[in-house]
């Protein structure tokens, strides 16, 4: 009887170790790659009407638009702007609906 008990325990131990060994060498499931969402920039052309360095924002009056657009941007970008400059803004609209300026290209006024 003791021999049967030992054989059963040995088989049980072998089964547990076999499952553990298989789990250790089994290939992990492949993760699905995360797709990057590309945000396309929108452009706006007009004249700078206000610059606020403290809030890192500025306003733009487009030639054919009724109102002004307000943008936030990096301090380096905002510091270079002056009221009255004719510019093209490359911006993206954030999830909260605010306009974030990515680049500013200064344009010469056509005579």
Structural features, described:
By secondary structure, this protein is of the alpha+beta class. The protein is 26% helix and 34% strand. It has helices at residues 2-25, 75-79, and strands at residues 42-52, 57-62, 68-72, 86-93, 99-106. Strands 1-2-3-5-4 form a five-stranded mixed barrel. A hairpin with a 5-residue loop joins strand 4 and strand 5 (99-106). The chain is rod-shaped and about 105 Å long.
Sum up the structure in keywords.
111 residues, alpha+beta, OB fold (Dihydrolipoamide Acetyltransferase, E2P), 2 helices
Task: Just give the CATH class of the domain at 42-106.
Answer: Mainly Beta
Instruction: Give the averaged pLDDT, no decimals.
Output: 81
Task: Give the CA-based shape.
Answer: rod-shaped
Widest sheet: strand ordering? 1-2-3-5-4
CATH fold title of the domain at 42-106: OB fold (Dihydrolipoamide Acetyltransferase, E2P)
What is the end-to-end distance? 109 Å
How many β-strands, per DSSP? 5
Q: Helix and strand succession?
A: HEEEHEE
Helix share, percent: 25-40%
């Amino acid at each position: 009887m003791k021999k049967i008990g030992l054989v059963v325990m040995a088989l049980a131990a072998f089964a547990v170790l076999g499952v553990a060994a298989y789990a250790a060498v089994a290939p992990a499931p492949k993760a699905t790659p995360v797709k990057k969402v590309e945000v396309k920039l929108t452009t706006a052309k007009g004249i700078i009407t206000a610059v606020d360095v403290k809030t890192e924002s500025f306003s733009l009056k487009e030639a054919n638009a009724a109102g002004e657009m307000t943008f936030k941007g990096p301090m380096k970008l905002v510091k270079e702007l002056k009221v009255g400059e004719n510019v093209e803004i490359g911006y993206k609209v954030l999830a909260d609906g605010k306009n974030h300026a990515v680049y500013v290209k200064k344009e010469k006024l056509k005579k």
